[in-house]
Fold this sequence. Notes:
The complex is a heterodimer of chains A (335) and B (545). With 335 residues, chain A is an all-alpha fold. Chain A contains 18 helices and no strands. In chain B, helix 8 crosses helix 20. Chain B is globular.
Amino acid sequence: MSNSAEAGGTPARSPRERFPLLTLIFERFLLSLVLLFAVSVLIFAGVEALPGDFASTYLGQSATPETIANIRAELGLDRPVVTRYFDWLGGVVQGDFGTSWASRNSVSEQVGKRLGNSLFLAGFAAIIAVPLAICLGMLSVHFRDRMPDKIINVISLAAISLPEFFIGYLLILYFAVNFGIATFPATVYEGMGFLERIQTIALPTATLVLVVLAHMMRMTRAAILSVMSSAYMETAELKGLSSWRAIVKHAAPNALAPIINVVALNLAYLVVGVVVVEVVFVYPGMGQYMVDAVTVRDMPVVQACGLIFAAVYILLNMLADILAIVANPRLRHPR
Amino acid sequence: MPDTHLLSVRDLKIEATSYPPGEQPKRITIVDGVSFDLQKGKVLGLIGESGAGKSTIGLSALAYGRGGAEITGGEVKLDGIDILKLGKGGIRKLRGARICYVAQSAAAAFNPAHRLGDQVIEATVKHGLMTKQEARQRALYLFQVLGLPSPETFGDRFPHQVSGGQLQRAMTAMALCSNPDLIVFDEPTTALDVTTQIDVLAAIKHAIEETDTAALYITHDLAVVAQISDDIMVLRHGKTVEYGSVQQIIEAPTQDYTRALVNVRQTAREEAADQSNPLLKVDNVSAEYSNGFKVLHGVSLHLCKGQTLAIVGESGSGKSTLARVITGLLRPSEGKITFDGKPLTLTLKNRPKDDLRRIQLIYQMADTAMNPRQTVRDIIGRPLTFYYGLRGAAKTARVRKLLEQIEMGNGFIDRYPAELSGGQKQRVAIARALAAKPELILCDEPTSALDPLVAEGILKLLMKLQEEQQLSYVFITHDIAIVKAIADSVAVMHRGRLVRFGPKSQALSPPFDDYTDLLLKSVPEMELGWLEKVLATRRMESAGH
C-alpha cells in the first residue's frame, strides 16, 4: 500500500531519509575527526608561540650561543615549523608522541601509565557522581520548591562555589588529619591492590564528586522541569500515576538529551580538570605530569598531554551527541 | 431520583489568580454556579466559546484544576461521593480508573518517548485493575472497535509514527481501557480535518455505546455535539446559558445566545456573475520543498477583481503552500503567476516594492504574526511608513482611520497584542494588511482559531471591506460552511493537486468527483441523526462497490 502511495509522485527516498540515525552518527564522527585535527594544529602553534626556550632553561648558567645551537640542532628545532609539525603528527597517528626532552624517555610510555591513573580516578568519581546527581535532580523535582529541594540546592551550590583545591584541603584537614580515617597523600604506585587503591583515592574522589555533582544535578532538575509543563505530563497526572512515577517514567526520558550533554561535559571536566586535584593530593596522573613538563618547557610532553586532553573532550562530547540522537525515538524509529 | 445519577455537579465555582502585566494580581472567577447531572451511559455536551469555562468544568470531574485554576465551591459527586473532599490519594485512585480524560491534542498528550500500547494500558495496570496480559487483550479489542489499522501491531508504534486521527482514537482507547464509568472528551476532534473528524466521531460514538460509558463531551461546535450527546449545556463566561435535551437546544432554543450559535452558519452571499476578467492568474504552478518533496502539482486557477476565491482542502493539501508561492516566499519549480496582466517575479527578493504592496497577507495565528513588544500603533503604522513614508501625526491619523474601518475604537491604539482578544488581534492584522492599500489579500485560515460568533464578525468585516474597497481575496480554509458563505469561486485541493475549480455554484453542485463528495459529506450539519445518516449511506456505498 505504501508503495502505491509513493508511486504517486514522491521521489525515491534518499539514504539520508531511510537511515537518519546512521547518517547523523556518521556525520558526528567525521566532524570529531576534523575537530581533532584542527586542535592538533592549535596545540602545536600554541606551544610554538610560548615564550622561553627549552635549550636556555635546560642549560641554565652554562648557556653559550654554541651550546644552545647544539641542543637545538640535536632536538631538530632548527628545522622549519611545518616540517616539524608533520613529523610530529605522523608519529602521533602511529601512537608515538616522541621523546621527552628533559628525561629522554618515550612520552607514549609515560603517558600510558599516567593516563591510566587519571582515568581510574575520574572513572571512579563518575561512577559515584552521575547516578547520584541524576537521582538528586529527580528528587528535587519531586519535592520542588519544598524543603528537600531547597536543601539539595543549597548544598550543591555551596559545593560548586568553593574552589576544588579548597575542598580538597578541607577534606584533608578533617578526614585525614583530625579524624584519621582517610589516607593522605593519595599516591598510588604499581602493584597496589585494588581495594588499597580505592582507599587511597577516597579523598580526591570525594573532592571531584563534590565539584561536578552540582552542575549535573541542577541541569537534570532544569531539564526535567522544562518538560513538566508538557501536555503529556498532564496526561500522566490525569491517569492517576504517582508523581514520582510520572517524573521517572514520563518526564526523564524526554529530558535525556540535555542531561546526557551535561553529564558528558562533566565527565570531560573530570578527566581534564583533575590537574589541580592531582597536584593537591600528589596523585601521579596526567595533570601532574603536564604541570611538571610546563615548568621545564618539555614541549613534546606538553603537546602530548594537550592533545590527549582534547581528544578525551572531543570523544566524550561526540558520545554525548550520539547518545542524545539515539535517545530521540523519532530518529530511532523513523516513520 | 438522585440515586441514578452517576455524576452530579452542584453550584460549581472555580477561580484562578491572573497576573495582568504591570498590575496587581487579581482573583478571577472562571466558572460560577454551574450544576448538572449525568446518568450512567449518557452523554452530556458542554458547549461554548473559548473562555466559557467548558474545559475547566470537564476537568473538575477529575478534581483537577489546570494552570492554577482552583475549585473553590460546590460539589462534584460521583456515585454520591463528593470527590472534591477526597484526599490526593483518593483522587489518584479514581483518575485513570473510573474517570478518564481525552485531550484536545492527542499529539501533545501522548508521551513521545513510549510506545502507544504501553501508554494505553499503563493506568489500568498501575491501578491493579487488570494484569498486563489482560490489559493488552482489552487494548487490542478497543483498537478493533475504534477501527485502527492493523490493531495487533498498532500498540508497538510510537506516537510520531501514526496520524493525528489515529492518535485521537488511540487516546480514546487509552481512556476506555480501564472500563471507566465516565470519560471527559475535551474537544477531541477540533484539531482534525473534517474528513478525519467524521471517522473519529463515529468511532467515539460507537465505542461509547459499545462499552456503556457515560461521557462529558466538550466542544465549541454545536453541530458536532448534536451528533453525540443526549443533553447539551450551553455555557458563556463561566455561567450556564441553557441546559436541556439535544432536541430542545437544536430545535427550540429559548435563549438568544443559543439561537445565535444555532444559526451561526446561515450567512450567505450571491456569487458574482461575471468571472471572466482575472486579476490574479496562476498558471500550471508546481512547487517542491528543498528536499525535493513535491507539494504542488501543476495548479492553475484565477481570481477576478473584487471577488473571493476560496481554496479548500485538508491539512497537507498544499493550500497554504499555494499562498506562499503567490507571495513569492516559495519559488515555484514550474509555471507562472500573472497579476493585473503582468507576470509576477517568482521570488520575493526581486519583486518591485509596489507589487509587494498590492498583495498582502492575513495569517491564521494573529498571535504569532504580531510582535508582542509593539503597540497597535506600531503594528499598523509599520506598512504606512514602509510603503508611503508616513510619520508622526499623519501616520497616527491614518492608523485611527484604519481602526475605525475595522470597527475598533481609538482606545486600542496604544495597546499591546497581549491586551487584545483573539478576534481583536485578527482585526488588527486585517488593518495592517489594509494599511498598504492592497488589491489582493491572501487570507490563510483567518477565522479557524476563533470562536464561531467571533469568526462570523471577522467574515462580515472582510465582506464589508470588499464592498467598500473592491478588494480581492484568496481565502484559504478547511471549512466548507465559510466557503458557501463568502466565495465567488472555489478551488478544492487534495494532496497537492487541484481537484476542482470553478464558480461556487458549479464547484459545489453535483456531479462531484470522489474527494469533493467526501469532503462535502463530512461537514457536520446542525441536524439530529446526521452522523448516522452519513454512515449509513457510506455503508451502502461500500456494500454496493
